[in-house]
Structure to design on (307 residues):
């Protein structure tokens, strides 16, 4: 890759590795509805002008049902589930559990006959990756109960379903319009709940800064940077950041929040990421999807969740 490509790649690895830390900080000062509503509203407000200036909103007509489905499984559900889970789980644990997204995606693609056939190597990757998830979930569930772990795994499942919807139903739509509208819709969904749980006093500077960073950097700015990365290095290389983000999440959790780096985390990290690499290797039983469809799906799904 070019120097510019490496710089963009490094930026995205950090940008989508820090939301776990920021969510942990914001959780300490505001409710989950306020956190999610603020994040998605800021992201939408920053992206909407570009969608309007480009005249892209008209292209969304007739796709309301699938836009709503994408919003539900990619933003509304996962953002709230992850934010609530991090009230109980270390941010590093959450980051590693969400790293199982490629594993779930490979399983879903196989179940829906939408991807390459599962070769022995890919089956091995699925087994190893899921074993890493089980190892990581075991200690976490024993300390705080199974619910937070289930919430994060449901988040990962939602992040796996979203790209399927984007690729098969929204691939012809402008990604900037899809994300601006979906984030705005999510903000409207959470606005009543955010109003009911609005803090009685102004949160601390740290909490406000975390909320601003989640909306501006990890959602809106990430969307724009990822587009440049796609243009510079192509969609396949760009999505390798999936394997970098968890390392950033773990490092920030340990260095900034003082979370413990246990042997279980180390082994799970290697198993989940190694399993993800193997499970997503192209098979030989089916041709790869068209580059344009892959590009739009990756841009739409990844930019919306920004983590």
């Amino acid at each position: 890759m070019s120097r510019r490509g490496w710089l963009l790649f490094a930026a995205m690895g950090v940008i989508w590795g820090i939301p776990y830390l920021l969510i942990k900080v914001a959780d300490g000062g505001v409710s989950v509805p306020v956190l999610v509503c603020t994040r998605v509203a800021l992201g939408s407000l920053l992206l909407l002008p570009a969608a309007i200036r480009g005249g892209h909103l008209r292209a969304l007509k007739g796709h309301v049902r699938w836009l709503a489905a994408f919003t539900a499984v990619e933003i509304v559900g996962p953002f709230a589930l992850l934010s609530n889970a991090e009230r109980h789980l270390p941010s590093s644990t959450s980051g590693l559990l969400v790293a199982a997204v490629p594993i779930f995606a490979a399983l879903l693609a196989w179940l829906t006959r939408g991807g390459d056939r599962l070769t022995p190597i890919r089956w091995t990757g699925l087994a190893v990756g899921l074993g890493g998830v089980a190892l990581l979930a075991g200690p976490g569930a024993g300390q705080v109960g199974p619910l937070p772990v289930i919430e994060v795994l449901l988040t990962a499942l939602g992040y796996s379903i979203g790209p399927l919807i984007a690729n098969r139903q929204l691939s012809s739509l402008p990604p900037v319009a899809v994300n601006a509208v979906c984030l705005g819709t999510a903000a409207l969904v959470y606005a009543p709940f955010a109003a009911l749980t609005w803090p009685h006093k102004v949160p601390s500077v740290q909490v406000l800064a975390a909320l601003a960073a989640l909306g501006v950097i990890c959602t809106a700015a990430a969307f724009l940077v990822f587009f440049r990365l796609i243009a510079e290095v192509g969609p396949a290389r760009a999505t390798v950041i999936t394997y970098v983000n968890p390392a950033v999440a773990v490092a920030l959790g340990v260095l900034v929040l003082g979370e413990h780096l246990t042997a279980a985390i180390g082994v799970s990290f290697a198993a989940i990421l190694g399993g993800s690499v193997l499970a997503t290797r192209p098979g030989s039983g089916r041709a790869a999807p068209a580059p344009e469809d892959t590009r739009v799906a990756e841009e739409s799904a990844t930019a919306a969740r920004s983590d």
Notes: The two ends are 23 Å apart (CA to CA). Residues 3-305 form one domain. Residues 284-306 have pLDDT under 50 and may be disordered.
